Amino acid sequence: MTFSIIIPVYNVEAYLDECLNSVLRQNYGKTEYEIILVDDGSADVSGKLCDEYAAKHENIVSVHQENQGLSGARNTGIRCAKGNYLVFLDSDDIFYKDSLVHLQECLDGEPDVIVCNSMKFEGNADNLEKYNYLSNDSGLMFDVLNEYQGLLNHKDFTMTAWSLVVRREFLVYNNLFFEPGILHEDDLWSHMIMTRAGSMSYNRNFLCCYRVNREASIMQVLSYRHTESYLIILDKLDLQKERAGISRLERAVTFRKMALIYITLCYNAADYIDTEKKDSLCAVIKRYSYLLKYEEFKFSVVFRLFQKIFGVYGSEMMIRKFKNR
């Protein structure tokens, strides 16, 4: 079997039919892929829908578990998978037409990871726009770290679980499961994938169509948990860059990744800087402030200037004023 398509499911009864039908309509042999539906403790009828689809289609597996979050659901799917390659699709998103056929064309040489283009849409899937776009040629490449460094500098590309297709044996052998209990888990996971992969290829065709601004999505609800997750990711990447045997290039791309996350952290933390979290947030922001020298986008220049003039607390208050204006 070539592909295992892992779809975490949580309270998405309004979107699941569209998602699954976009996969089942693929012009690709049904015996060459499986769909693994992981119902992560849904409170609506999503779990029942999973079972109904599994009863009708031999290549669909329905798994139920108590709520563990997106990382936990994806990890369950990985452990159930039988395909040579793992494809991640969120249950409110859809596949682009002929996605699997185009993925098949990227498998020569069995790359550890395939980096894919994707689309985005809001509301109606007829209104698709480019979300991630790469013009890189396909073909097997072994200089993965240099390619990853280029991707981190690519202003039109954001690395997510559904923009990467990963060889299952490579992932399992290196224990590259998703970090449980956090948001923005893709930031940490994708970095670990790209710094461990020995080979890669690009899929210039579109794979996933990403739904934006969905009501009730946890990513649309602002909370301190977002900021807390970025703190955890920064700490874990900090440990990675100091591990024994790390190459200079991997250390450099890890600094670059940390810098991107640090800027997002500073932006999010401004909403909580005048609360009981003030002291702990200021300490972390100050500790990682050196990362700004690894990032040259305009936000990093502004943050550096703010911190130099106003200090950590003052700079966060300035950012909050800017956000609320």
TrEMBL record:
Official protein name in the record: Glycosyltransferase
Keyword Transferase: yes
Annotated coiled-coil segments of the chain: none
Record has Transferase as a keyword: yes
SUPFAM superfamilies reported in the protein's UniProt record: Nucleotide-diphospho-sugar transferases
InterPro entries: Glyco_trans_2-like, Nucleotide-diphossugar_trans
MF (Gene Ontology): hexosyltransferase activity
Xref: PANTHER family: GLYCOSYLTRANSFERASE, UDP-GLCNAC:BETAGAL BETA-1,3-N-ACETYLGLUCOSAMINYLTRANSFERASE-LIKE PROTEIN 1
Domain annotation Glycosyltransferase 2-like: ranges: 4-131
Keywords: Transferase
